[in-house]
Design a protein that fits this description.
GlnD_Uridyltrans_N; DUF294_put_nucleoTrafse_sb-bd; 321 residues; Beta Polymerase, domain 2; CBS domain-containing protein; 4-stranded mixed β-sheet; single chain; alpha+beta; 12 helices; two-stranded antiparallel ribbon; [protein-PII] uridylyltransferase activity; 55% helix
């Protein structure tokens, strides 16, 4: 019988064989998480879950964009709420979060985990939660809505996740102001291109000379494409897949020019940061260690990401006027 410790050992021994591309690496992460959930379920008092449920991951894992080290972002949707079901999934959520931590997936600082009651609910309660987030004008509510829209079913019925995403899509069709609030939540991006076209790097600290790929490069692409996906009712989570589906829709070919290649290249650069010992380490790219060609490539990716972000916001705002 596997344990969390044996899964950690297996994961550490084999993960380096999957660092050639992001798809292989994320399939490996999925496999590791499946193993953790199997152990967590075996520790429950009941042999089987009392009702149907879906365990989903979100964040970079939901988007199939995890790097070498990844923290936890996950939740549970179960069929219906009653005393037995609520107690079971509360315990399962706490157990799987603990198991992932032991296996090498750090706890999420924002508590986006199945151990948090906000992220472990029945289907009806999830719908009520989404309704509250969409009606509440706080920054945190819209942030949570964005996080949920990146949810990908890892175990169980994908239909629960699609049903809840369609609830968000249908709501924004009737209430276009929701998209404006989504825009406000992601309006600002980290400026890393200077007035003469130079890359602005961290000036002090342990990441001196580095650029923060997460905030300066990834988020402009991820946030812009997610915004268009909410607007168009695209339920896929991978940023690259979302781009391909958006390109098939009339009017997005020009705005997404070169974006698929840029994002693919960005994922490759992130994979080069496997020497990082902590989760933040895997986001900082040392510009000084790059060749001239690579620096120009990173500069293009950063510039195009900012352009995409600004154009998507302008396009979405004008459509809602």
């Amino acid at each position: 019988m596997e344990t969390y410790e044996s899964i950690r050992e297996w994961k550490d021994q084999h993960i380096t064989a999957f660092l050639d591309d992001t798809v292989s690496l994320n399939r490996f992460h999925d496999q590791a998480m499946h193993k953790v959930m199997a152990v967590a379920k075996s520790k429950m008092k009941k042999d089987n879950p009392p009702c149907y449920f879906t365990w989903f991951i979100t964040g970079s894992g939901g988007r199939f964009e995890q790097g070498y080290i990844s923290d936890q972002d996950h939740g549970i949707v179960y069929e219906k709420s009653n005393e037995e079901n609520d107690a079971y999934f509360k315990e399962l959520g706490e157990e799987v979060s603990y198991g992932l931590h032991i296996t090498g997936y750090p706890y999420c600082k924002g508590k986006i985990m199945s151990s948090n009651p906000i992220w472990c609910k029945s289907l009806n309660d999830w719908q009520a939660q989404l309704q509250e987030w969409m009606e509440n004008e706080s920054w945190e509510s819209i942030r949570h809505l964005h996080i949920f829209y990146d949810a990908r079913a890892l175990l169980g019925n994908i239909g629960y996740i699609h049903q809840l995403k369609s609830f968000i899509y249908d709501y924004q069709l009737v209430h276009p102001s929701l998209l404006n609030r989504c825009i406000a939540n992601v309006m600002h991006v980290k400026n890393v291109i200077g007035p003469i076209g130079q890359i602005l790097v961290e000036r002090y600290g342990i990441y001196q000379g580095c650029v923060d790929l997460k905030y300066a490069a990834f988020l402009p692409y991820v946030n812009a494409i997610r915004l268009l996906s909410i607007k168009e009712g695209i339920y896929e989570t991978s940023t690259l897949v979302r781009m391909r589906q958006l390109i098939q829709l009339n009017g997005y070919e020009k705005i997404l020019l070169n974006c698929e290649k840029n994002f693919s290249d960005l994922l490759k650069y992130r994979l080069s940061l496997v020497q990082g010992k902590t989760y933040p380490d895997t986001h900082y790219l040392n510009i000084e260690k790059l060749s001239k060609k690579e620096r120009n490539e990173i500069k293009r990716i950063l510039k195009d990401g900012k352009r995409l972000h600004d154009e998507v916001i302008a396009l979405t705002l004008s459509a809602n006027e």
